[in-house]
Amino acid sequence: MTGMTDNALVPESVFLPASHASVSLQRCASCQMVLDALDPSPDCPRCRGLLEIVHRAPRDRQGHAMDASALRASFSQHCCVRSLGHGDPENAPLAQASGVWRFESLVMPGAGTAIVSHPEGNTPLLSRPAISRYAGLVSLLIKHEGHNPTGSFKDRGMTAGVTQAMRIGAQAVACASTGNTSAALASYAAQAGIPGLVFVPAGKIAIGKLAQTLAFGARTLLVRGDFDVCLRLVQEASRELGIYLLNSINPWRVEGQKTIVLELLQQLDWQPPDFLVLPAGNLGNTSAFGKALREARELGLIDRVPRLVAVQAAGAAPFARAFPEGFSTRYRVQAETVATAIRIGDPASWDRAVRAITETNGLVISCSDAEIIDAKMIIDAAGVGCEPASAASVAGVRQLVREGIIGAQDRVVALLTGHVLKDPGMLVELHQQREDVMHANRPIEIDATVSAVADVLQRTRAAALAGA
Ligand code: F0G
Which of 249, 285, 338, 350 to mutate to test the pocket of ligand 1 (most atoms within 8 A of CB)? Predict the structure, then answer.
């Protein structure tokens, strides 16, 4: 099948017919060229376009196409069982308990015993009055992907990506990263027992992410250049050296990340929200969300789609700049923002993300660094916590409520993408070092006496009363 045009595959079709011989194929989103599911090419060999996965419509054991209620029941069957052993066929069914692999039929049907799973996913949907109030909503729902094993949503794409690496017999895996992808790659490559190589911008990734990547044993290259330089380098190196590329241009990563939306819809009893708001950098997640919603609607799992809102940092906002012009220009910028995870000036998944925004009647906006940090401090102080880039989603909701685009009663879900401990350097700076930060929670050095503690307690109570 590699390199051929599959006549049975109608261009733009969301699924292969249930009777199709292949379980999954890869298709170039630009020229429609079709590749076998096990082809390791990072992009289209003919036109360098982005690849996407097309699955056969899910079937039951008798080979019949499954309707929406049968599918929902199959997703619920293994929900939230938390233990898993890797590589043991006896435990393979437990992989489906993962928040990714219980959706296996829509991610990588037939992955079976190749699955490399921590497990991951099964992340909570939270609501906190202080955060809702800040956003200007009656109730803001928060899907917190920082609860994944390495502390970010990247684990969902990486379990699929590393599983695919095992399926094709890859000798090594690589990625460029602003930090979270590298931590996830390092963890899953270690579990799979294959060497991992990561390319990160020297001096520009948060310390927690670098620490994880080193701890999990990936070869870590501190590249003199920004993320966009790292991505170009890893693409070239993978092509020349035959390393399997695991950036989010890898279509299997997108398949794994779709499960954020599938799991969210399941948590909402398949009643979609009005808006689904997420931070955006390289646009892999925006693309994955668009594909998940397209497929969920095609399968009848939902009858309408939420409006997707992609939020960029103002200093790294080429996609937000293109949005009001109908995406007629593909902008590239020199990116700068405190939200290092989304410090990206030339997003790779641009075309896929345009489709996601267009199909969902979505929006792309940007927030300043000050707005992002302000939102982060509210999220942190509510006891939820997140890394800086994550807070762009809540800052974005607040902006759209103020502009009257989101109504106070609307059902809104904001995605938090990474854990508060990803960027401890930023926390120390905000709470201990900077003089200009309102609500900084400064640590207090005391003599080792009870009266010193009593003094602090009294001042804390007085401050609480003054604030109430
Ligand atoms: N939030 C966090 C915490 C991220 O780490 C990223 C991307 C994003 C949002 C944006 O997602 O790129 O799919 O639009 N981090 C990548 C990395 C680039 O290398 O870890 P996106």
Answer: 285
